[in-house]
Amino acid sequence: MALAARRGQPALGSTTTSERVAGGACNLVRLHLPFVAAYGESTLGLLGDPSRRAIFELLARRPCSVQELADALPISRPAVSQHLRVLREGGLVVSEADGTRRIHRLDPDGVTALRAWLDGVWSDALTGFHKLAETPPDVSDEPLEGNS
Predict the structure, then answer these.
(1) 0.70 exceeded by the pTM?
(2) What is the pLDDT of residues 95-112, one digit of tens each?
(3) Domain 47-109 is in which class?
């Protein structure tokens, strides 16, 4: 039995997710954390992170390797790789092998879908503004003469 297990602590590599500490508080402890998608299925949410947006903008200019992206940004290569994975799983980025490295580029289908969604939102907003502009002002909101 491992020393950590004898002390009532999770062993290295254990899947135990919490342990009690003094005062009854519960701290989450996990050595192999799974990736958690914070924005679910929302493509727009994928671009909510500033680093992810920067990667998206760089890839809009030209395809890049992880190293090229990391060199252009103030984040590490592992962080770039994780952001690329999120963008790839969200349908905005595709990658292909080029020798010993992978080249990443925007997925035209994903960008087209994002653009269509944004166009729909913009159209709805403009329709709402147009209706508001055509609505006559409410007479009761206007000041009466002589009551200034």
Answers:
(1) no
(2) 999 999 999 999 999 999
(3) mainly alpha
